[in-house]
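Next comes the chain:
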Amino acid sequence: MTKDTKINLLNIVLMLLSCVAAFIMPFEVFLFAYAVLGPLHYLTEISWLHDRQYFAKGKYDFLILLVIGIVLSLWDFSIYYHWWPYDTAENREMASSWNIYEKLLFIAFFSGIIVAFVKNYLLKIVGIALVFFLALRIYGQLYNAQLDEGGKEGILTMLLTSFVPTLIHVYVFTGFFMLFGALKSRSVAGIWSVVVLVICPLLLFFLFTDKSFIPVTAYGKEAYGDALSGNGFFGLNKEILSGFLNKQIGEVPASIISNEQYRNFYNAEWSQLVFHSQAGVIVTRFIAFAYTYHYLNWFSKTEVIRWHKVPKMRFVAVIIIWLISLGLYAYNYKVGLQWLFFLSFTHVLLEFPLNFISIVGIGKELTTIAKKGFKPTTLAQP
């Protein structure tokens, strides 16, 4: 059995274990994976990307993605801690009309494509400038007019703001990375691992749909957040349930007249839908599986990716920061989320060039295979 086959068989086992864990206790499995495995993954991957120039054409191209990560983190802090421009009601209304989150994610996503494939500095600057002005245009008057008229965000906005930094990153891009490696090395075992990655969500969606093995705990609910606070992961489930599964809360009772009463009703109804409905539990199963396996996939391929081959002092720093992050999560899960927002979000942005290179690489390998055949090798390595 080759090293490639052993690694891919290990990954199939890890997928199945992640799937079983997601069936049994989805909310807590996700929260555990995110708090314990997540920070170590972010730190080691950023270190690995740094040694490879973030897969960008220019040495300092990554700075645009890093700066956007810093700005978005400060913006998130300003909302959470009521810093300027979220210090007064008047400023909050003004700041919400700027659509900073949407604009910067649009710029980061499409700038990631440019820095991954464009080497000429002049073309790179022109391309990023064009992306910048498109962001201003799309998320300026056009975007606000769309919201005023239809009350719904466009599909591009929903994907960029809600799903690219979360499920697309941990599931779709992980699948692309695995498929690219399998095709490049002509690994049959690698192809089978991608097939299992596709099958697992189907199992989660269609098996035991009426069975909740271990209901969400009180701690799980508190850490997961709610419909009003904006903290935690509640908003991701809510976005999937409403945007893709068309699940909505019931009609507002006529007896509810005050804002406070309505807010309590709104929160209670959405909490019931997310934590206790069949659809809510199934959605969280997929989220738990996608995140847990995303982290395990990274650590299972240590000898292939060799992310641990770094200077000793950097490795020590990674371990220290990871232990501090564990302490923050243990102290208060929401505090851990808030203070590690920069680390988790920035690693998503810095990975954009690699994601796009993997997608293009899949196309190239499929073209070669179509012309010359698959021709698997016995010494294939991802």
Residues 155-185 form the longest helix (31 residues). Residues 17-372 form one domain. The CA atoms of residues 107 and 133 lie 9 Å apart.
